[in-house]
Batch of 2 targets.
Target 1
Amino acid sequence: MSPRLCAVIVTYGQRYTLLNQVIQRLDDARVTSIVVVFNGNHAPEHISLRSTVVPVLLPINLGSAGGYLAGIEAALLLDATHFLLLDDDNLPEPTCVDRLFQAHAKLGGGSLLALQAFRPSQPWQRVVVREGVLPVGRPNSYGWFHFANERHLLRRQLGAGEAGCDVDRVPENACPRIDVAAYGGLFLRREALQLSERPDPRYFCYYDDFDFTDRLVHRGMTIHLCADAVIDDIETSWHAPNERVHPTFSPHTEEERIYLDLRNAFIFYRSRITNRPLYWLNAVGFWLGIAYLALFRSTHIGTTKRRLTLIRRAVRFGSRGEFAPSDD
């Protein structure tokens, strides 16, 4: 029986131009159906819906967690053997889908084998491909910080940019195994989604994908990052700009993004604390890093004060495992 691939795309806001580009690219690939989850933003007059598209309409924005939860449930009702999860700005290169199938077969084609397509815009994925090291999901991380990651990420954190990653050649770490994955570019078989693990809607967004894939791995799934199956992110992430002002202290960054990202990091890493002395050592590094960013990579004193208050709140609730909002 030939494989049947279903793509699951989650979209929100006024992002129809991005969505249409992704749908068009998938129409040219080996995709038999496309589930599009509209997170409170259904506007059919702006969307080129084709016969292969199955729309899922949510009345409000439930975040990436709620969106992918609804999308996965809808996709499992279709006659598909394989699934590719995508954000609405994830544009697979023309060869991406074929290379995912080829890599899956080369690695044995197991029912619980998953692949993460390579997104060069993601700093952690560049580190994996360039150095063979996974800098996310490390036990005993304190929020965003782990000392073991500094040699891989320090240049970028200091605002000096980072070494590039040549995606025009097959790197040494062409298909390394990883412990967690992002939604965008996650390629997996039906059997993996039938393990009954689902995205946790309490996260809303940020780290919900790591939590979801971490639980799948604990149920027996394995994940490899496939370096030659490339997805281009059409829109730049708020994490990504290499500017003097750090995104955490930039007035252009939405405060809700910062809060959810940090709160959820603490919630995710709570179950990965195995060494208390190392955890508290990383805590010292975290707060020293925040102090450096506040002093040297911020501009407006009022914004800096607000962000420090926001960070303290995110740390307080996240370290308790509480999904509390950013304000009372």
Note: The chain has two domains: 5-120+167-233, 247-320.
Target 2
Amino acid sequence: MSIVNIIANIFSFAKNTSETEDIYSNGIKWYPGIEHGNPPPFSSDSHQIHTKINKIDNTETTKKQSDWSVKSFDIPETEGKVRFHDLNLSNELMHALSDLNFKYCTPIQGLTLKDSIAGADILGKAQTGTGKTAAFLISIISRLLESDSCKRTDSPRALILAPTRELVLQIEQDAKKLLKYMNNVRILSLYGGTEYSKQKDKFNKCDPDIVVATPGRLLDFQKRQDIQLNRIETLVIDEADRMLDMGFIPDVRQIVYSTPHKDRRQTLFFSATMTDDVNRLAAQWTRNPVIAETEPEQVAVDSVDQKIYIITEQEKLKFLLKILSEATTEKVIIFANMRSKVRNLHEQLIKNGIDCDILSGEVSQNRRISTLKNFKNGNKKVLVATDVAGRGLHIDDISHVINFTLPENPEDYVHRIGRTGRAGKNGISISFACEEDSFYIPAIEEYLGEKLNCEYPEI
């Protein structure tokens, strides 16, 4: 397609797009997104379509998709399991699931996908590692395709709110894997700690159907009137309990009330715990939700060898250095409870010749991104992290998780050790328990439903 034709299509698209609006009681305008706009003149890489590279990439992707058939992704029916074949998903989405080797739904996916794809609200109790991210992404993508996502609007149609930058970036990466064979659905992440103008430029060029954002940065966009949320068809609130803990609910509430009324949007609400406060929020923001609850992560029991060493606070560093010197420690995450402890531990490891990185709320966003990249590709073998920074990390081949201090909350223990023993592989969890840490062991054992083996190390 020539540049002249592209420009002509752009003006034709702008001319033909119309808008209607409806005002409801709280004064917020609602625009039914599925009824407006024409197909875009080009794909999600529109601002670069003139380049030869992108033309080749799009051609190759289309060719790969046209050569693929769902018949080549043959998964047998199994009692008690839901296949993705059973959900009537698009061929493009099934192809992406095949590439990811997703054969059967996880429990949270099996409990929610049929209803959410049909348009129902969801109230899901699910922790990190249960497949909930894929559950809401598959639902969003399916509904956009069903309602003809080629009919473009000038504002997002799906919004995903998450508490941390790392989780936002992870959700975006997961979505791009699912959108691998689709040019007509676009996603963009918005998060703090990076230059606002650059994110604004990316947003304007991308014109995303799906936005995944942290509350603070999304409010920045709203206050500057750089984003409109009045055409949101699906709203996802992920890790609502963590949002409460981090004090984000006032921001989230402001964002929710700028989307269409809950009677005119779908809301998918997920939380690892269901406290009274969380349930009150769910009641305010959802309408007759399908309630789905999964059991706590069992990764600790199934695929992680858990070791607890009774040790003094003064002996911890020496024993940690001994463990890190062993050949079996390939890729290691070390958790501590507080930022100050993480910072101090990182400094001590550097002084002792351990090439490691740090991940906490004090680290700038640019450094966070480079830190995770270096850890994922193996340039750095050791990462020291806080719970908030480490939650939701999906990194392959982590051989060891080390709890330099045991967490006060048993769920955080499971979240931590769930970073290893993933994707059918075995992992090792090592916890140091000084006198203070030992008080947390009974609660962890009760949560896991098993006794943990505690021993004294040879230092």
Note: Confidence is low (pLDDT under 50) at residues 6-59.
